[in-house]
Known about the structure:
The complex is a heterodimer. Chain A is an alpha+beta fold. Chain A has 4 helices and 5 strands; from the N terminus they run βααββααββ. In chain A, strands 1-2-3-5-4 form a 5-stranded antiparallel β-sheet, covered by helices on one side. In chain A, helix 1 runs antiparallel to helix 2 and helix 2 packs antiparallel against helix 4. Chain A is globular, with a radius of gyration of 14 Å. The mean pLDDT of chain A is 91. By secondary structure, chain B is α/β, with parallel strands linked by helices. In chain B, helix 1 runs parallel beside helix 2.
Amino acid sequence: MDAKKVLIKEEYDIVIARSLVKSMAKELGFGIVAQTKIATAVSELARNITTHAKEGAIEIREVHGEDGGKEGLEIIASDHGPGIANIAQAMKDGYTSGGGLGLGLGGTKRLMDEFEIKSVVDSGTMVRVRKWM
Amino acid sequence: MLEQDRIPILKIEDFLVASIQVALHDQLAMQFQTDLLNKITMTKAKGLIIDITAIDVVDSFITRILVEIASMANLMGSDTVLVGMQPEVAITLAEFGMELTGIDTALNLEQGLVLLRNSAERNVGDGCQKGTHQRRI
């Protein structure tokens, strides 16, 4: 399956990104519950981009385990926004700087199997998540 | 915003029913909130049913909009029942940790109507205001 990239510039791009990831997850063979979890996670990551960084990108690609056996989907959300000064605080439920529920990052981590975040203040943020089949 | 982009709100008995069939975005969500509150005033509706059968992804943004609607409707004396949540959406919401504070839920439209009818009758019997109870998922 080819990797795909969606530029996130406006609200409607969030819908495009989550529809695309859902159809890719379905094509790979994920069940409906996993498809919904992945699509919800992408929706949160994409909304973080429009809320905090104005624009960025969501990249989606198929990944394989080190032994080559397992298959999964990897999503990378990246932006050149303001960055996150305190990642531990941003991961906590109830913390919000954007008027949301303050569950975005913590909840996204719970929905996925792997979660990695890198952020540099005034430079940008990268979140990489993976879900295995 | 184009008229066809608005979410239609129907009246059944003393209640309002709105079925969300499209992806909610900021502007549509705000228009929906305003339309619902105006309609509650116009029709003196005793309850509100929001149908999300067609919604395949409920993220924290949509959750916030729904909780806000229920809170506003509650201030106007109207209960809110969310119906038609897909099983995979319920699983995702629970795992994510999102709470639908102040919103009752029912399996489908029919059961949502039963819930509102019972609630309206109970409130008449007690002689008290509606919408004072809260349930969390």
